[in-house]
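Let's inspect a concrete specimen:
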Amino acid sequence: MRTYLTLFALALILPVLAVSFFGLNRMAAIEQSQIERRVMQIAQNLRFVVDRELDRALVTLETLATSSELRSGNLGAFHQQAVLALKPKKAAIVLIDTAYRQLVDTLKPYGAELPPTSDPVTAQRVIDTGKPQISNLFKGSVNGLPVFNVEVPVFDDEKRVRYVLIMSFQAAFVADVLAEVRLDPAWLAGVTGSDGNVIARSQQQDEYVGRPLPAELFEQTRNAERVYPAVNIAGERILRATAMSERAPWFISATVPLSHTQEPYDRSLFFAVILVAVALVLSGSLAYVFARLMARPLDEATHAAAAVGRGEDVHARRTSLVEANVLIDTLAKASAELNERAQHSDFLMRELVHRAKNQLAVVKGMALQTARESATVNEFIGKFDRRILGLAQSQDLLLRQNWRGAWLRDLVHAHLELFGVGPRARIYGPDIFLDTTAVQNVGFALHELATNASKYGALSNEAGRLAVVWQALEDSSVRVIWSEHDGPPPRREQEGFGHRVITDLVPRALNGSSKLEFTPQGVRWELTIPADHIVRRTDHQPLQG
């Protein structure tokens, strides 16, 4: 029966898989082509945005170059005019003469002593050509930041270059311009100078500005005309497109992680899995139809399954079909197990009601004690909320162990994690499994100690540390020691509910003993848990923290 049904299912699935994989791969290839076109389009858009800002700077400079104050030599008045004309926040206007001396810099008051320009090469090109020029990245002589210059000539009456008027931009200005083109988080826009150094990036600008591109990537950037795979400056595999600026000797690029381009294929695989699942369901349905034609042994198995559903006892019986015999035997075992579970469920329901009553009593007691020590409603809500959270941590551990108890190590970790202790805590001791009473009460104590430590003790500063260690004693009891170190000096506050928990309520609930000390190193608390509350233990003592 199984052989025929398996062959029938395969006969249905294999043709579907062949057709679906072919079609989905074709769709994935089309989507990948669309992604490549989008990378190129974004690179073109980025070039337009960058060139637009450079055009604005050139228009501003060319307008200022015709200033009457500049022609008359009234540089003080021109300084004021330049300050008013400057709109970008991360830029400055500079005027230099043909000896590269700075005459005006809007970053400095007029008349202040100014150093020579840090970019004489670009200034000389302006003087030689008499045309506007845009530089690569260099370090500014006044602000010391990575900057680039947009420079235009200023002519005298004889059409000779008298000055060079400069708008000096911080590299971060271009990064802000790139951010105007809103890209998906996985995408990256960048600008590279003709010298191969990074001018701006849409992400991690401060980390990469001024750094040279890898030689292979820069060679691809200069020569590639279409989208190309590459490895970026961070060592990541990418898909990249580059457009040359029409205003500056810059390369503007758009990149996307190569893994992003694999998403169409991953999606195709997902749909292929869906198709396989649908095919399996279809083949299963057809197999069910054929199975209906099988002989009486399967009817026997069906009746047995119905009996299990009604909660009746099912007894194993022999038929002429081996598969049916196995199924009926399995149903018989399942029937016995279900009946046993039903009885166990009734027991758990009764136990749950009993524990719920106990928990309500505990919560009521906590509320009353917290109310007594709280001056305001907000203070009561904060304290009561934290204590309920600590109680919930203990309940979670009990639930994982089917209310049999919990491991002491897990209990300590659960309560300390609420306070973000991390590596500042040293947790050490053998594997000890506590019963439910011990879990709840020790959990109360740990929560109160951690709360106090976070407010006044070792967890209230950066240097503080704490240790929670325990050991098995000769009489099979367990001693737990909480000790704080390198925190503020211990403070003896008013003995409130927390103090009563760790010194009186918890030891009395366990029929054990405790000791609280305020040592120069910090708070030290010991609790002895009688052997009656230890379910099991080992001698292995792993060290954590």
Notes: The longest strand covers residues 146-155. DSSP finds 15 helices and 20 strands in the chain. Residues 352-356, 540-545 have pLDDT under 50 and may be disordered.
